[in-house]
Amino acid sequence: MHWPLALRGQTGYGGDMTPAARLSGAIDLLCAIQNAPRRPADATANAFFRERRYIGGGDRRAISTLAWDVLRGWRRLHWHLEGSQGDISPRLLCAASMLLSGTTMDQVRMMFSGERYAQNPLTPREDINLKHLEGKELSSQKQPIAIRLEYPDWIEPALRETFGSRMADEMEAMLGTPTLDLRVNLLKGTREDALRALKREGLNAVPTKLSPWGLRLDGRQPVTAAQAFKDGLVEIQDEGSQLVVAAADARPDNRVLDYCAGAGGKTLALAMTMENKGHIVACDVHEKRLEGAVKRLRRAGVHNVERHLLVTGDKWAKRRAASFDRVLVDAPCSGTGTWRRNPDARLRLTPEDIQELVIKQSEILDRAASLVKPGGRMIYATCSLLAAENGQQIDAFLKRRTDFVRVPTEDLPDLLPAELREKAQFSLTPLRDGTDGFFACVMQRLEPVAQTEEAPST
């Protein structure tokens, strides 16, 4: 189903869509996500709304919230609809999600009225499949634990390896709605400046507990429309990601490599800690991601960054061997730590993905290590919960590269909160820390041992 272009004029007052029209939008968005099963849902959503620019910001947030509620409850919704006649369609999932959130069957039928911009009325079969859900809750103790906590069955042993007896509590925290975290750009002002600027626009933020530069807002807020964002005073960045940058301890006189820079979120924060001095090289294998960093760098007022596209056969790395004080490896990973934010990723991940990622991470670590100067540091980070991508990956690397060691705890940067300076590698979780799931390890390349000349024999 496609919305008619007349939707942009369906308004009357202020361009706001009716609840029924928003529901239609959420169903259309879920159809688009379902039709692109290997594409991240947020990328599909961005394209979806670009093609429908007539939908206002408030309506976009409402449509996204409806769709993401379905994605977060995907396995539980299918459990409730097990035995339904016909396909479990996005229409059925949206209706079930509303019913299991307290909406009555009569209210759901009204939303599917068939009137202007509303969905067609429920069919007799859909009505039969749905009406037994009225008054029930989405989560039930009757559900198998993997369904109730929304993770793939096959990944449970790996989650238990990471969390042990805390596994159920940690995964329940992953079902929550993520906070919206901002990083204050100290190149443009202080945290107090940012708090005041946001408050003037009705955005009431609070300082984060762990990051010295972080601010936190509840739920979806129109931050990108705020002047503080447009002026580069704040940048959207999870608190956990900010702490990875704090662990890097990049300084104004350093040469720094952001080896898997993507669109430059951590690059921007590194530039800030370096006071816009020194030199940063932001590398990635995807040209579009690097191009996406340009606008962000300009908005943030950053000018100490060089971008480099990594391609097969490139001699760039060989020419710059052992030349960087800091190398940040924000490795491609399973993204299991971002499941609150990207619930669709639970549905796409396979055991084969993990196997391929572990090999790729190992190769990236080895290549990046050659770029660290003696005495310099390499910071390995993922947004994964899995030991195979985190601690086990580091253990294997240190066995291969005896010229690297974990940084002694007394040498970790003061920017990190005390509880994270207790060891050279740390993990963060939504339950314990209120952040996305992150892992980071700080390693140092040892200085070569000086060879002493033996005295000539007499």
TrEMBL record:
Protein name per UniProt: rRNA cytosine-C5-methylase
Keywords for this protein: Methyltransferase, RNA-binding, S-adenosyl-L-methionine, Transferase
Residues the record lists as binding S-adenosyl-L-methionine: 284, 330
Domain SAM-dependent MTase RsmB/NOP-type: 170-446
SUPFAM superfamilies, A to Z: S-adenosyl-L-methionine-dependent methyltransferases
PROSITE patterns, per database record: NOL1_NOP2_SUN, SAM_MT_RSMB_NOP
Origin species: Gluconobacter japonicus
Active site location: 383
Signal peptide positions (record): none
